[in-house]
Amino acid sequence: MADRSLRGIRLGAQSLQSEEGVVFMERRATEYKCDTCGQETTLMFAADAEAPQTWECRHCGAEAVLQVDGASVKLEDSDEKVARTHWDMLLERRTRDELEELLAERLAYVRARRGAGDDPTRHRIGA
């Protein structure tokens, strides 16, 4: 029964929805210029959306700056929190000397376990 109901339709090739009654948002072109390589990138945003001040350059990966009336905008320093790494959070809880001591203890423990291969009841994988 399912074979008959899907006959003649290419699944995934075309949408079964029509564009009737769909209202598209107004869009505007936004330009970014990379100071590193000089390339200009044009992106489309919704007319009511706020464009970000910087965008990653497609050519060199540096930050391209938003262009308004042919001039680069002045970048604002925001009060946003900088993302902390695991290392930063670890250093908030322990000193570097404590971390080195913990590392030495764990390495000694791992080395002791590896050296305990004299146990005949213990089987190695792949050996």
From TrEMBL:
The free-text function statement in the UniProt record for this protein reads: Binds to RNA polymerase (RNAP), stimulating transcription from principal, but not alternative sigma factor promoters.
Record-given protein name: RNA polymerase-binding protein RbpA
Asked if the record carries the keyword DNA repair, the reply is no
Organism annotation: Microbacterium commune
Name the Gene3D superfamilies on file.
RNA polymerase-binding protein A (2.20.28.270)
Report the gene name.
Answer: rbpA
Which key words tag this protein in UniProt? Transcription, Transcription regulation
Question: Member of which family?
Answer: Belongs to the RNA polymerase-binding protein RbpA family.
User: Quaternary structure?
Assistant: Forms a complex with the RNAP catalytic core and with free principal sigma factors.
